[in-house]
Known about the structure:
The complex is a heterodimer. By secondary structure, chain A is mainly β. Chain A contains 1 helix and 12 strands. Chain A is elongated.
Amino acid sequence: MKRWLALAAAAALLGASSAMATEELRVGVGAFYGLSAPVLQDVDASSFSPGDALGETGSEWGVRVPIKVIPVATIEPYYTQSSYDDRTETFNGLSYSREGWDRKAIGANFLFANTLATGFKFYPYVGIGSTKLERTDEELSNFTWNFGLGMGFSVNEKISVHVRSQLDLMVTDDTSRKFGDVTAGLQYNFQP
Amino acid sequence: MKSLRWLILGLGIGILASGCILTSGQIQLNFDVNDGTVTSTGLYGIPIKLSDEQEYVDHKEDIKNISDLAFLGKFTNNTSNAFTVEVWMTQPTTLPYTDETSMKADPTAVKIWGNFSLAANQTKQIDWNESAHLFTKAGKDAIFKEAKDGDGDFTLYAIGSSGTYDFDIKNGALVLVLDAGI
């Protein structure tokens, strides 16, 4: 699995770097804030209902640096941080709380649109990165895939608004810890 | 456009490779523990039967790891001496052990959890986070091996760590979260 992921990352980087060499560089910077929730984590098998698929929601914020690669695509390094609420459950008549994770992730998305251009955009994107989950005396860290859909519109030539929904898959051997995010943010373009 | 083909190829390989990690989750199984009193001369076995859980039976082959584990409940020290509580695991036997020496002599016995401190005559409900940290590496490995390679049935014994002890367990529960394909 890791060899496939390394191959995928290498091929993507090769393609992106080759493409960037032929294009005029355009760069922006963006900040975002929103909600994030664990997906299919700690699901109670004996009393499952579809609503249990999402765990305790947390807040999420981050920054991104979109770089135009080719006319219809953008590469976007990002850093994001989330903090999830504690989970409270009752077992055999007593109530307990489990500490929620703090999540930090760094990586790069590949957006199938030029989000540095003006106008309305609706774009899918994929990304790779590294995620660290932390809570008291416990830490997990691994490779992460992102998949998402974004929507953006420009306020003027320099500023645009972006709303995104995203699924993050932090790889844990042959399985993953998944998180769903909904965020909104502002982006500033350095070039008109 | 040649470079774009490389880019799309790379992302495509990545998405295909991630197929097995897409259909997975962390499945929580809970087992209630009957109330009981434990003394240095009178143990009681706590039977855990993963095989009674249909989700476990259906996805046993897809179990990859244990992602979280906790032994919960309210403990009461019935003596005027402080001591600590630990939990051991054995394979099920026809008759559960009633004394510590026999239980520990079982070749399958392994300490899986502890030590949880109880002051003299104290009643204490353990915290979920504290309990999760009290599971030993050997204990996690033993439960995972039983869940993955065994029949999923085992017996737990709570004991005092030394000397004379006498304590109650009320509203007890074992919470087990398995990392598995679904």
